[in-house]
Specification:
- With 268 residues, this protein is of the alpha/beta class.
- The chain has two domains: 144 residues, Rossmann fold (3-Layer(aba) Sandwich), CATH 3.40.50.1860; 113 residues, Rossmann fold, CATH 3.40.50.1860.
- 43% of the residues lie in helices and 16% in strands.
- It contains eleven helices and ten strands.
- The strands form two sheets. Strands 4-3-1-2-9-10 form a six-stranded parallel beta sheet, sandwiched between helices. Strands 6-5-7-8 form a four-stranded parallel beta sheet, with helices on both faces.
- Helix 11 links the parallel strand 9 and strand 10.
- The protein is globular and about 50 Å long.
- The relative contact order is 0.20.
- The structure holds D-glutamic acid (DGL).
- D-glutamic acid (DGL) binds next to loops.
Length: 268
């Protein structure tokens, strides 16, 4: 079991930002990544649909004998309690609680800003996770165009800047003005530079990828699940267009993905 891979899934390629942090923190582990590219985006869909998709994605990973599942998608993390129950005793980790923890570590009393998909904002998962730990005020803003922009490689320049102003200026003008801004969607780290410029240097940006990797490392150590043999190659699965997955995935993964290593699977 210890040498089994770690499964990660997302609606598409954004979760590769989390896999990148995990692979860096845990170089002795093998990862299986699944992107549900046929049904992306999850962010505009209802919580019931997203929970159903998340369960199918998680089952595709458990069928491949993973030892742990990471939901590398903020929107799909709405299904965390449901997946934890359905897959028990297999550990399942989401990105929202680690993100909330990192935001409070950066600004213990807040105010905390959260930018995310429409589904994550409406579902209020960050507000709940932050308020479970602190009374810090939370202000939220959905940024739906950021996902297609990141996938088109439109991560900087005048168009990216104009869209970022449109979403972020009203958020920053609100009372209370956030000191910390959580990038509450795994696609958003690709737009980090433009977001940082628009909100200004006095706002700390929080990306849940690194702290999620810390949480996974802690869990593996606590449960004696760390791999003892050198890992095999990582595998990538998607539900549509493997070539596009490999090409666009590089924006998020930060290194080349061999198109031959991406396999198309059917989740239904
Ligand atoms: N990666 C998803 C998230 O973190 C956003 C993309 C989508 O809408 O499917 O919320």
């Amino acid at each position: 079991m210890n040498n089994a891979p770690i499964g990660i899934f997302d609606s598409g390629m954004g979760g590769l930002t989390v896999m990148r942090a995990l692979a860096k923190k845990l170089p002795g582990e093998q990862f299986l990544y699944l992107g549900d590219t046929a049904r992306l985006p999850y962010g505009t869909k209802s919580a019931d649909t997203v929970r159903r998709y998340a369960l199918q994605a998680a089952h595709a990973l458990t069928r491949r004998d993973v030892k742990l599942v990471v939901i590398a998608c903020n929107t799909a993390s709405v299904g965390l309690p449901y997946l934890q129950e359905a897959l028990a005793p297999l550990p399942v980790i989401g990105v929202i609680e680690p993100g909330a923890e990192a935001a409070l570590a950066a600004a213990p009393g807040g105010p905390i800003g959260v930018i995310a998909t429409e589904g994550t904002v409406k579902g209020g998962a960050y507000v709940r996770a932050i308020h479970a730990l602190s009374a810090a005020p939370v202000v939220q803003q959905a940024c739906p165009l950021f996902v297609p922009m990141a996938e088109e490689g439109l991560t900087d320049g005048p168009i990216a800047e104009a869209v970022a102003h449109r979403y972020l200026d009203p958020l920053m003008a609100r009372l209370p003005r956030p000191k910390v801004l959580v990038l509450g969607c795994t696609h958003y780290p690709a737009l980090k530079n433009v977001i940082a410029r628009v909100v200004g240097p006095d706002v700390t940006l929080v990306d849940s990828a690194a702290i999620t990797a810390d949480v996974v490392a802690r869990l593996l150590a606590e449960r004696g699940l760390a791999a003892s043999e050198s890992p095999g190659a990582h595998h990538f699965y998607c539900t549509d267009a493997p070539d596009r997955f490999a090409r666009v995935g590089e924006i998020f993964f930060g290194s080349q993905i061999d198109p031959g290593a991406v396999e198309q699977v059917d989740l239904q």
